[in-house]
Amino acid sequence: MNTTPSGTFDVAVIGAGIVGSAIARKLAGYELGVALLDARDDVGDGTSKANTAILHTGFDARPGTLEARLVREGYRLLSEYAGRTGIPVERTGALLVAWNAEELAALPGLREKAERNGYDRTEIVGPDEVYRQVPHLGEGALGGLTVPDESIICTWTVNLALATEAVLRGATLLLNRAVRAVEERDGVTVLRTSGGEVRARWVVNAAGLGADVIDRLFGHDRFTVTPRRGELLVYDKLARPLVDRIVLPVPTALGKGVLISPTIYGNVMLGPTAEDLTDRTDTATSAEGLAFLLGKGEKLMPELLREEVSATYAGLRAASDHADYLIEADAGRRYILAGGIRSTGLTSGMAVAEHVAELAGEAGLPLVPREDLPEPPRMPNLGEAYLRPYQDAARIAADPAYGTVVCFCERVTAGEIRDAFRSPIPPASLEGLRRRTRVMNGRCQGFFCGAEVKKLMGAAGGSAPAPCPPSPEDGR
């Protein structure tokens, strides 16, 4: 069921990023009417779309924290879910590289921290092994710490799979619904949004960058989100032979620092920066960010800088003044906060959803498991290491559209574009189509295929209105 006859949902989840979509999917597995709201015109169009796309073991999380536990559990849950739904994952492993004596001295502590977090597969290695594993690394590495189970994953497909399964389970997806105000009426919470009122008995706040603003609408003042901009450079696929695993710096208080990583799409990524801002909508790249990354890249892997850059982008992380995830239930207001969830939310999202459901049940939300759940969706493969439609002779023989390549840089076919618009959550814009198919994400950035892609979008009914302008109250 979706709502009661009065039009009231049992639960409204604010924010259709990875965490919010995972929560909606989990709650829709019970006899509940669930709404999933987002301020944007698509799921995963905020923080979740622009991160380093690493599936973390949680080896370097602060031991004993809720984040450490949920990242560890989320790694297991998402790994299993990826296998069931076809989300592409590559078990590349990672290597933390120490470049000076202080960083080298920190490696035993990092190994001990990993063991306290339940991960015992790290190994301290000397410079010879570092360069054996990453021969193209710049000069001067003193040693390293191996993390063999770190992986790369498609963050776009994770988000879409979770939201799609929520919808298949009966959740109602409400896009272009930025929450502006909250009212209580006769025991029901009324969310006044940019797209009209949404009524719900319970509300879950998974609004990412706007979570603190939403939290204050419910009468709390317990944390502040600072948008932290991370800029990244994406190098052409010809650079991929330079690096076959994630190369990490020794972490600092600001984050994991600048890394070099292969991507699930066959590219190589350098970044991110870490710049605290006040504007929660500023995802522009900057000359300063570019210069900073190039300087880091010259030290880490000079050969990489001689390769072509196919894209630059920036994302905003929800940095918080709270040292841990902040996930709490307010039984009196029938309200749950899932805030302060940083970039590790990609890995921990499904575990966060399990934790939220547990808190909700303890706070009084009736949780009756459904017996009629549909099978999880099988997602289109965007991973370069797996069979793509243009390579699948049997699939092409059954439907020639999968043999009609439209985007030659990324080898995207007309069949994939058609399927995206026939899916349970079709794209509302060109950017949404890019996240579902990789179309126009290659080195020419749509210069060659752009006109044909837009023609196919029009034929599929993909002309969409512009999204609502973002605001500090955006549910992302």
Please provide a brief summary of the model.
By secondary structure, the chain is of the alpha+beta class. Helix content is 29%, strand content 23%. The protein has three domains: 1-90 and 152-224 and 321-378, FAD/NAD(P)-binding domain (3-Layer(bba) Sandwich), CATH 3.50.50.60; 91-151 and 227-319, 2-Layer Sandwich (D-Amino Acid Oxidase, Chain A, domain 2), CATH 3.30.9.10; 389-459, no CATH class.
Defining key terms:
476 residues, alpha+beta, FAD/NAD(P)-binding domain, D-Amino Acid Oxidase, Chain A, domain 2, 3 domains, 8-stranded mixed sheet, 5-stranded antiparallel sheet, 12 helices, 29% helix, globular, disordered C terminus
Write the layout of secondary structure elements.
Blueprint (H helix, E strand, L loop, with lengths): L8 E6 L3 H10 L6 E4 L16 E2 L10 H20 L3 E2 L3 E5 L2 H16 L6 E3 L1 H7 L9 E5 L3 E3 L1 H14 L3 E3 L4 E7 L2 E6 L2 E10 L5 H7 L7 E11 L10 E4 L9 E4 L5 E4 L3 E2 L10 H14 L8 E12 L5 E5 L4 E5 L5 H19 L29 H6 L6 E3 L4 E2 H9 L7 H8 L12 H10 L17
Parallel strand pairs: 1-2, 1-12, 2-9, 5-14, 12-20
Antiparallel strand pairs: 3-8, 4-8, 5-7, 6-7, 10-11, 11-12, 13-16, 13-17, 13-18, 15-16, 19-20, 21-22
Helix pairs in contact: 1-5, 1-8, 2-8
Protein name: NAD(P)/FAD-dependent oxidoreductase
InterPro entries: BFD-like_2Fe2S-bd_dom, BFD-like_2Fe2S-bd_dom_sf, FAD-dep_OxRdtase, FAD/NAD-bd_sf, G3P_Oxidase/Oxidoreductase
